[in-house]
Amino acid sequence: MNLANRITLVRIFLVPVVTIFLLIKLDVEPLTIGSYSISYNQVFALLLFIIAASTDGLDGYIARKRKIVTNLGKLLDPLADKLLMAAVLIALVEMEKLGAWVAIIIISREWAVTGLRQVALLEGAVLAASKWGKWKTAVQITMIIVLLLNNFPFNFLDLRIDLIVVWASVLITVYSGVDYFVKNKNLIPVSD
């Protein structure tokens, strides 16, 4: 197994670790700065999430640079992304930091585009990530980081950046999903 695939596997193995840190309640006083408070387990989960999310670009870069792109990597990379994002979004819903409807929209879009990619593979085509898909990922990661930071440092300025990034994430998620289907409508069978 090559280095890029190992990095992808690390991202998959980090999914339950991040989720456990988000959902467990440690019997430890939270980290407090003035009126701001954050639990230590949330800080650990945030750091692990940032590490896991940053490996997404790293594994692809290494695979292309070293010319070690494999079918296993093509399968595992998007799977790792979806597992990480879905797990954290569901945990955020459980923590009451995110509305369930937001998680449903984001997760549904991911699986709908995955289904379209599967149809494309059956037709012998590969759907590359679009620029909107890349922006969508960046905005979703930003949203998760802001939510895990409890809107720090913007809460001191009374700015609801958390709401702004949630809405931006929903809008770009929907737009990028529609964009994939419109650009690849020829792959969708109208009738058998």
Protein model, in words:
The termini are far apart. The longest helix is centred in the first third of the chain and has 26 residues. Helix 2 runs antiparallel to helix 3. The mean pLDDT is 90. This protein is mainly alpha-helical. Helix content is 70%, strand content 3%. A hairpin with a 2-residue loop joins strand 1 and strand 2. A two-stranded antiparallel sheet has the order 1-2.
Tags for this model:
192 residues, mainly alpha, two-stranded antiparallel sheet, 2 strands, 70% helix, transmembrane helix, phospholipid biosynthesis, lipid biosynthesis, membrane, phospholipid metabolism
Helix content: over 70%
Adjacency order of strands in the biggest sheet: 1-2
Low-confidence stretches: none
Could you say which overall geometry the principal axes of the C-alpha atoms support?
globular
Please trace the helix and strand order, writing H or E for each element. HEEHHHHH
In what range is the share of β-strand residues? under 5%
Q: Major sheet, described briefly?
A: 2 strands, antiparallel
Number of helices: 6
Indicate the topology.
Layout (H helix, E strand, L loop, with lengths): L2 H21 L7 E3 L2 E3 L1 H26 L5 H24 L5 H23 L8 H18 L12 H23 L9
Antiparallel strand pairs: 1-2
Helix pairs in contact: 1-2, 1-3, 2-3, 3-4, 3-5, 4-6, 5-6
